[in-house]
Amino acid sequence: MTKDIPVFISPEDRVPNAPQNVRVKTQSTSATLWWDAPPDPTVLIRGYTVEYGEGSISQRIVIEGPDSTSFTVTRLAPNTNYVFAVSAYNEAEGEDGTKVMVAAKTRPAEGVQTEKLWPPTSVRARIEEKSLGGSAIVSWDDPNPENAADNSIDATQRQYVINYGIYESDTQQKVRSNAKAVRLTGLIPGKEYEVAVKVVAGDGSESPWSIRDLFLVPETKKVSKFDWFCRLNDTEMCSIDSSPHWKLCTAKHDTYTQRDAGACPRVQYPSSPAHLTTPPISLPDAQHLCFYFRFALLNFHPGQMKVEIHPDGDTSNRQIVWKTRMANVRTHVVQNVYIPFPQQIRPFKVSVSLKWDGQPMPRVIVHEMDVLSGGCSERSTACNLVSESTTAANGDVDFDSSELPETF
């Protein structure tokens, strides 16, 4: 009994089939051809050949790459009949694939004309977050088909001019690129930039500028090596990373309300959870640490609040150091919460988060968040919260210690 041995056929064991739907459009001195790739995807295509001539084939151009499915032939004579042929090729033995022939006549000359270049499209910027300085990769698409001058050996290569600068600034810079992407460096963190691109052909002709793209260079995140303090007000977020639920609200002191500034919920906000997270903090020599935050609950709510610590860059390794049900927190009373936690060798972040189900977001206003070395004072612990009233009465929080983790 013989065993069948599978035969693996190379994708280049035969030449490609003929391109499909070959079309041609002429100007007075040029002709643009478009086509679709051969229908058989099992045969590898390495590129295409375009041949042309007056009445018969006399010129041949090789286009590398299977994705190049258009080409513009230039330097043709006006009002002249031409024949064109398009075929696909690979490295199989034999000739190129089957040629598809089309014929067309160039238009009569109408004075001196130049081919119009279209501006680049889909200009977009991508911020390089891991780079040491502010930098961005800007890329774009070129809607202009390749032509014979671009592919000839002695031709000047098509280039792109990139104009960029701080948004609405008088100072702009220009760089050139042979590729359809460029890296912009030396950008200033916290500034919004604008960028536009245009095409410069080998003969020196230029396209109009593209539609400009605007992008923001984020602030550089610095690791704090000292005690970190943040008193939230109507203009300062202290580099806190906040979910979209929050906005800065101003202080309000009148007959009905006595309230400091802080972070409070937006009118429209996404679903649970919401969080406020400190920037990276590095206090490796502190044997004992303390997180202090000051907040007030403005309406009764059955949701949950918790405080977590995690290493910078590792949100999967979270440690809960405090949590409570919002139903245990008295409303309209400023709560001063001191939470001790152990030494952190690596840079870390502290996050205050709220979670709720089936109800609107709790009306919480956060006034202050601090990270202190040396630990919390003996009288201030997470289980014995000190309350400071913003009204005529003072009060303490009814805290359920069973909700705390066993160890900090």
UniProtKB/TrEMBL annotation:
Tell me the keywords, alphabetical order.
Answer: Repeat
Q: Which residues form the Fibronectin type-III domain?
A: 15-109, 119-220
Q: Which InterPro entries match?
A: ECM_Regulatory_Proteins, FN3_dom, FN3_sf, Ig-like_fold
This protein's superkingdom? Answer: Eukaryota
- Pfam families in alphabetical order: fn3 (PF00041)
SUPFAM superfamilies this protein is in?
Fibronectin type III (SSF49265)
Which PROSITE patterns does this entry report, sorted A to Z? FN3
Question: Which named protein is this?
Answer: Fibronectin type-III domain-containing protein
- The gene name on file is Cnig_chr_I.g2225
